[in-house]
Amino acid sequence: MRLVVVTGMSGAGKSSVLKMLEDAGYFCVDNLPIQLIYKLVQLTFNGTQNIDKVALGVDIRSGQALEELDEVLDLMSMDGYPYEILFLDASTEVLVKRYKETRRTHPLSGAGRVEQGIETERNKLEFLKKKANVIIDTSQLLIRELKVQIDKIYLKNEKYNNFFITVLSFGFKYGIPMDSDLVFDVRFLPNPYYIPKLRAKTGNDKDVKDYVMKSEMAPVFVKKLEDMITFLIPNYIAEGKNQLVISIGCTGGKHRSVTLANELALRLQHLEYGLKVEHRDIMKDTLHS
């Protein structure tokens, strides 16, 4: 029997995850009164129903009763009912943007500002985040990327590390990505833009990649960057950080930055962390020409 408590910040993707788990064969119950959770657990573990996977959605909608959940979870552990907690998180900036796009009201903001409601919710859910077996920050994840993570953990039973790396290429002329943790400038490398046969191509094309990487500086830069990132990650994790956005920029975000972002991601694949590559500005020059 596998019991997963799905919780986290409002707007971080809990409803989507419950649908994914339901599609994966989980018996899903959302927003069940806290007082009934233990009863449901007893029925599913000891009952005659053929249920071997259960997901319970719990969030701030439980109101004051949410404080009782800690006791319920302790009771479940003492009585031999194992459970896992999946906590879905996202940055305040991303959550505010999602609420504005959907024109929904945060459950704790009332007539006040959304940001205030989000921070209040963070404080109330902190005890659950500390208990969580898995924390997924959805700030940088598309729905399909989130589904890949959920399938890995709860369908394929693969090991999951609560740290996610995004390697992001960009063009300085379009601005530095606001969510960057680390920013690196690769404009010192030879620019394929000035090679007519390469100008219309991108760093995803082999001949552009070969042109950039044949520079003596490019392989050295990537190796030093790999060493630094590998050194930094454990220290970030020790400080409680659960995601890292590494932004690599060139002039237009089409050639050099794309090549170096791809190369760095390849070198980080051996690490046991979530990893994705994103090219923010790769098509902008094409669209503007």
UniProtKB/TrEMBL annotation:
RapZ C-terminal domain residues: 165-282
Membrane-crossing residue ranges in chain numbering: none
Keyword Acetylation: no
Domain RapZ-like N-terminal: 1-156
Keywords: ATP-binding, GTP-binding, Nucleotide-binding
Amino-acid positions noted as binding ATP in the UniProt annotation, renumbered to this chain: G8, M9, S10, G11, A12, G13, K14, S15
GO molecular function: ATP binding; GTP binding
Binding, GTP: D59, I60, R61, S62
Key word GTP-binding present: yes
PANTHER family listed in its UniProt record: RNASE ADAPTER PROTEIN RAPZ
Identification of the protein by name: UPF0042 nucleotide-binding protein
Lineage, broadest ranks: Bacteria, Bacillati, Bacillota, Clostridia, Lachnospirales
